From TrEMBL:
Residues 116-213 form the VTT domain. It comes from the Bacteria. Keywords: Membrane, Transmembrane, Transmembrane helix. The keyword ATP-binding does not apply. This is VTT domain-containing protein. Coiled coil: none annotated. It comes from Leptospira kmetyi. The chain crosses the membrane at residues 33-58, 79-97, 117-139, 160-186, 192-212.
Length: 221
């Protein structure tokens, strides 16, 4: 009787906590990778079809193409909505636009300075939030995308300098979009990240605006 019970216990499936944890890590990694891969594929297909390189019969594609062209035109002008589009899309860590250069160019225009700064930061607020939450839900995929070497270098910089690092990355022409994704990966406190991010970006915007407009035209806003 005792032998039979012992045999049944041995035949039961044993679950190791470490194995379960590893399973969830792998599942999160692959789900994140699939998500980011889908986003990249969608952007690639949209770009190819927009420029006529790839011919696809997709319902509503012409409207999407018109919208994409209108975004490009607004960014090139520049216009206030173009400034917003620049940081909305350029602030995504996986989509590059020369944000600082385009902002400097916009400051040379006759656009209202306060509106310019507000829309610039608003676009970044949305895109950095996307980066942050992508980092949280697809951490391993984001690390692969950023590159482990760059990720751990930034993480070390954060560990060493903390809030000052976040401010510096946003106040200076450094890869702040990537940093926002890194902060999501390490689950950095949002109540610290957002105020410091806004302060850094606001500092950068005002300094550029001051030098471009006040130094060259004698005006500020």
């Amino acid at each position: 009787m005792g032998f039979a019970k012992r045999k049944r216990r041995e035949n039961r499936v044993r679950f190791d906590k470490n194995e379960i944890f590893q399973y969830h890590k792998k599942r999160n990694f692959y789900s994140g990778l699939i998500f980011l891969g889908s986003v990249f594929l969608a952007i690639l297909l949209l770009t190819l079809t927009t420029f006529g390189i790839l011919k696809l019969e997709i319902p509503g594609l012409s409207e999407i193409q018109k919208f994409a062209f209108s975004i490009g035109k607004e960014i090139k002008k520049p216009s206030l909505i173009g400034v917003f589009y620049t940081t909305l899309f350029g602030g995504l860590f996986f989509f590059y636009l020369p944000i600082e250069f385009l902002y400097i160019r916009a400051t040379y225009s006759k656009l209202d300075g306060s509106d310019l700064v507000f829309l610039h930061i608003l676009g970044l607020l949305i895109s950095f939030t996307i980066n942050y939450f992508l980092g949280r839900i697809a951490a391993r995929a984001c690390i692969k995308l950023i590159s482990p070497k760059k990720f751990y270098r930034m993480k070390g910089f954060l560990n060493r300098y903390g809030v000052l690092a976040i401010f510096a990355f946003n106040a200076l022409p450094l890869p702040a979009p990537i940093l926002s994704a890194v902060l999501g990966v390490i689950h950095y406190k949002k109540k610290v990240f957002y105020p410091v991010f806004v302060a850094g970006q606001l500092t950068q915007c005002l300094v550029i605006l001051f030098f471009v407009r006040h130094v060259f035209t004698g005006k500020f806003f």
